[in-house]
Specification:
Number of strands: 13
Structural class: alpha/beta
Helix content: 10-25%
Strand content: 25-35%
Number of helices: 5
Distance between the termini: 37 Å
Strand order of the largest sheet: 5-4-3-2-1-12-13
Length: 260
């Protein structure tokens, strides 16, 4: 029998504080956000770029993680326990080369896959190597494409996702105060060009010398921002997509400062 949720997906955009290089402490924060997202019936939760260590290029080599890292195993167990796809950012070991800015994607059945950022920001090439494979996965029949930050600036990335039948474009990012307007216009343009919702999760902590701006949220297929945080508050943004449509009325911002 088809699932009663077929065609519908609820995405939690995590906007947590992150401590430089503190994997254990940041992992604890991730688990708290995952648990709370489950209370709001999220099917997917996504964290910002390099959320397990902060956006700290100088730490990538020292903190690069193997694919069987304990942190990934812990996130995978949380995905199973909470029946949710969990996407978290971390540096990935790259045998024979510089580490990669990556994400682990943990599924409710215990499976895990990984994605490495394909398009590096200026200066990142000194610390890491680009990935070379796209990441698309399906939840409740909804095809989701994953991007990490500068990926979305390159039209080839979203064009390829659309060509592979993506119905949602989901980005794990670091966006600064000064970069928000231009990046928001770019993300809204992806939504309009490909006629699909575009969502992103951003940092709120000052990290890697960047003053980030939060404002995690999303645009509908017409490029209208319907859900999102107002600024740098610690929160979850809950975005519901029903039959391919991002529902503004269902969007919620859940404050996390006092949530256990």
């Amino acid at each position: 029998m088809p699932s009663e949720n077929a065609g519908n997906v609820v995405v939690a955009l995590a906007q947590p504080p992150v401590i430089r290089g503190a994997v254990a402490e940041n992992l604890t924060t991730h688990l708290r956000y995952i648990k709370h997202a489950a209370r709001h019936d999220a099917d997917v939760i996504v964290f910002p770029e390099l959320s397990l260590i902060g956006y700290e290029p100088d730490l990538l080599e020292a903190l690069a993680m193997p694919y069987d890292a304990e942190a990934f195993k812990t996130l995978s167990a949380a995905a199973v326990e909470n029946n949710m796809v969990v996407i978290a950012g971390g540096p990935l070991i790259n045998d024979g080369g510089k580490p990669r800015i990556g994400a682990v994607i943990c599924f409710p059945d215990g499976a895990r896959t990984f994605y490495a950022k394909q398009h590096l920001h200026d200066g990142e090439e000194a610390y890491c190597s680009p990935g070379d494979e796209a990441c698309l996965f399906t939840v409740n029949g909804v095809r989701i494409a994953l991007a990490i930050c500068a990926d979305f600036v390159h039209t080839i990335h979203s064009d390829a996702a659309s060509a592979r039948k993506a119905a949602v474009y989901l980005a794990s990012v670091l966006i600064s105060d000064g970069g928000y307007e231009a990046d928001a216009q770019c993300l809204a343009g992806i939504a309009r060009r490909h006629g699909m919702p575009v969502l992103f999760s951003n940092h709120i902590s000052d990290t890697g010398s960047w003053q980030t701006c939060g404002r995690s949220g999303g645009w509908n297929a017409q490029g209208e921002r319907l859900v999102g945080a107002d600024g740098r508050e610690a929160c979850l943004v809950i975005a519901a997509i029903r039959d391919g449509v991002l529902e503004g009325a269902s969007g919620r911002v859940i404050a996390m400062d006092s949530v256990a």
